[in-house]
Specification:
This protein is an all-alpha fold. The chain has one domain. The protein has helices spanning 2-10, 14-40, 45-61, 75-79, 86-108, 111-127, 134-144, 151-171, 183-203, 209-226, 230-251, 262-282, 287-300, 313-343. The longest helix has 31 residues, at 313-343. It is globular, with a radius of gyration of 23 Å. 34% of the residues are buried.
Amino acid sequence: MLMYAEYRLWGYNFSRYCLVSWLVHGISGGLLFLLVYRLAASPGRRRAMGIALLAVVIFNLRRGPVGPGWIPARVVAGEMPYWPAQTDIFSLLVALGSLLSLDWYIYRKHWGWLTAALTLYIAALLFKEMALALVFIAPLVVWYRRRKIPMVVGGIFVGLGAVFLVVRHLALPVAWNPEFRGLGHVLLKIAWYLDEPLLRYVGAGSYWIVPAGLGVVAIAYLAARYCRDVISEVVWTVLGASVWCLFVGQVVAGNFAQATIPEQMAAVGLMILLAGGAVVLIGSRSPLAWTLTGLVVAVHLPILHVSGPHYLYWPAALWGALNAVLLAVAYDQWRDLRAAAIRLTGEEELPHQGI
């Protein structure tokens, strides 16, 4: 119906379809900003505004997958010219509106906000089955807020999702409804969604990038923990990481020159980001970081049985939110490590502000 309405308006003027996609994406970016800002606003509004803005930036910068017929591009940039992907774009728009309405209902307990949340949830389902993720995302938002809502509210979200699947199956038996295709398939898809470029390098035999990246993360932590000034920390991190990558390249890959190949070092960088993010999350006491991790897991559940770059549009938004928060948490943890090192010299400690 959406495509038919646009065809009646624009005909074969393809640029108009792209313009609609960009406008809707811009509004979705604003809603993502509001959602992250509201969730992160408890320590300080200025800090929350920075985190929310960073989430939108990362959302727009996230790279898409590489595959047959898939143009290497950022998820957002690849989504806009592909007019069938407007279902994903509109679905995310109304889903973010549903989550914001639910968040306002949690605080104000006004049934108007709950009605808006459920109405927008239904609209999101009609645009794309990705909205089934809200069945899991909505309770996580409620848990994060430490508020109680009637059990019937959660039941309504689950019930509407179940009704949607039944009607979709009866009306369109050939549609790709969520299905379990075996544990091996699920594990492979998890790894693919977690870091597709890194999976390609490891699958091609570049195993050395895994210990190389893990070692650099450990070196950076030790430098932050024991160096008494930032300059020493940077110098020891760069020297230690360089020697470690050369060593691992020689021992594991059979040639230290692996550490001089830009593509291989880019893969090491991906491993550093993945391992560093995991370390930051595990050491985090931030409920928001763990909540967003749950949201990222939930948003992938409806697409474990399918493949396609347009399916990454929803996850890109929540990955942006999670990565922005993890960067803020990492900065707090670095300041804590610096404070521990400074105490050894008797200098003034750095103030700490957590999420």
